[in-house]
Design a protein that fits this description.
The complex is a heterodimer of chains A (about 220) and B (about 200). Chain A is elongated. Among the domains of chain A are: about 100 residues; about 40 residues, no CATH class. Chain A is mostly helical and about 220 residues long. Chain B is mainly beta and about 200 residues long. Chain B has one domain. Helix content of chain B is about 10%, strand content about 55%. In chain B, strands 2, 3, 4, 5, 6, 7, 8, 9 and 10 form a 9-stranded antiparallel sheet that branches. Classes of the chains: A mainly alpha (about 220), B mainly beta (about 200). Chains A and B meet through helix 1, helix 2, helix 3, helix 4 and helix 5 of A and strand 1, helix 1, strand 2, strand 3 and strand 4 of B.
């Protein structure tokens, strides 16, 4: 299990996401070219971490493998004419492989919909076992199922492992009028003012009475 | 999870960092693998037909006996990207049963070997189409027509050669000790009872 270099990883860290090796800190005296490489690598790393990169990559590889088995020598030898005789079997191989490639790319470039693409990918990968060459002789099927599951299980944002899990901030300001309408149809501004008056009159210990008063006016 | 080490090395980049939750992973992975296992089991039982379509010279098929109904064969010429012309024989069988079927495919350094149809339950194939440069065996044909125009072949629905070409067809065919080395493509829908997949040697 790989430990990310920034120490955020722990027991649940993803082994499918090998973090890059320790990068040298950007040095002010370094020449331009390495600095540019480092910044480009960092940009790629941020891009990669903000989406289910490895799941998408595995789906992409699965699709390419399923496409390659029926088509590789046809493309190499340039004899498309013979493909016509393959019939529906060859069509399914191309169809499933192409759709898996599309799923992988869409998970990269449109990760918001990753759950749908992952489910489509896993169905295609399982169906490929009967439809095309026993799922690319098992390799493509296993790659596709694993990649789709990784994409499905990926969650964005600062994970709990990052150590600074924060709950959603509560909206500032008073509660909406909806609650007041449900409780006693009293506009919240007036009620808040009245409650503040009662607290002032009866002292700090009156909050319980205030609470009861709201329910039994 | 030590907070002292969790300070990011580059605080200037607050890029959101996602991670894989393994429970969610298992939520999809386990049912998918279960479904795959069911498909593999059904294929092993010979209930489900697997569609095979392989191109490349590294694909070999052998069988101790092939019995087929509806047989066509015609010649073809394939021009590769260098302009060299290769004669190939395209054989099509509407339905066939293959005893002791063995298929091997070489992917890089690995050789994958699939055997099926041993014992009393032969593997079956429907709409089997083979473009091969080397097809050997002891063949017996029934009601064979030799020298028919390849464009008029009709034993296998939907498959005919170029009109004007040489073709032959037969009602049924039996080939003992079939060995076939495909130059281009093998396609067909196979049921594979007793399906077994191993890494190892080629079939022959």
């Amino acid at each position: 299990m790989d430990i990310p270099e920034d120490g955020t990883g722990s027991a649940g860290s993803s082994p499918a996401e090998p973090q890059p090796a320790e990068e040298p800190a950007p040095d002010a005296s370094a020449p331009d070219a390495p600095a540019r490489v480092i910044s480009a690598w960092r940009a790629f790393r941020d891009w990669r971490r903000s989406r289910p990169f490895w799941g998408g990559l595995l789906l992409l590889l699965a699709g390419v493998e399923l496409l390659a088995i029926p088509l590789l020598s046809v493309l190499a030898h340039g004899s498309v004419k013979v493909v016509i005789y393959i019939g529906i079997g060859g069509v399914f191989g191309v169809l499933i492989g192409g759709l898996l490639v599309a799923c992988g790319l869409l998970i990269w470039f449109h990760p918001v919909q990753r759950v749908f693409y992952a489910i489509a990918g896993v169905l295609l990968a399982v169906a490929s076992f009967v439809a095309t060459n026993l799922g690319g002789f098992f390799f493509g099927m296993l790659l596709g199922v694993t990649g789709a599951s990784l994409s499905f299980g990926w969650t964005p944002g600062p994970g709990r492992l990052a150590g600074h899990h924060q709950s959603r901030p509560r909206p500032a300001g008073p509660p909406s009028d909806g609650l007041g309408l449900v409780l006693d149809r009293q506009p919240s501004k007036e009620r808040a003012a009245g409650r503040a008056d009662r607290v002032l009159q009866e002292g700090a210990g009156a909050s319980g009475a205030d609470h009861e008063a709201r329910w039994m006016p | 999870m030590s907070p002292s080490t969790s300070t990011s090395a580059d605080p200037a980049e607050p890029a959101p960092q996602g991670r894989v939750r393994w429970r969610r992973f298992a939520l999809l992975f386990i049912p998918a693998m279960a479904a795959a296992a069911v498909l593999v089991a059904l294929t092993t039982e010979g209930v489900l037909a697997a569609s095979i379509s392989v191109s490349g010279s590294a694909f070999e098929v052998s069988s101790s006996q092939l019995k087929g109904t509806g047989f066509e064969q015609f010649g073809g010429v394939v021009t590769d990207s260098k302009g060299t012309q290769h004669p190939v024989a395209i054989s099509a069988i509407k339905s066939a049963s293959l005893a002791d079927l063995c298929q091997s495919v070489s992917v890089g350094p690995l050789t994958l070997r699939i055997t099926a149809g041993g014992g009393n339950t032969p593997a079956t194939a429907s709409n089997l189409i083979v473009d091969s440069d080397n097809l050997s065996g002891d063949a017996t044909f029934n009601n064979i027509v030799i020298g028919q125009d390849a464009g008029t072949l009709n034993e296998v629905p939907g498959v005919a050669g170029p009109s004007g070409g040489f073709g032959q067809q037969a009602d049924s065919v039996t080939i003992n000790n079939l060995k076939q080395n495909t130059w281009l493509t093998t396609a067909g829908s196979f049921t594979l009872p007793g399906f077994d997949l191993t890494f190892g040697n080629a079939c022959y």
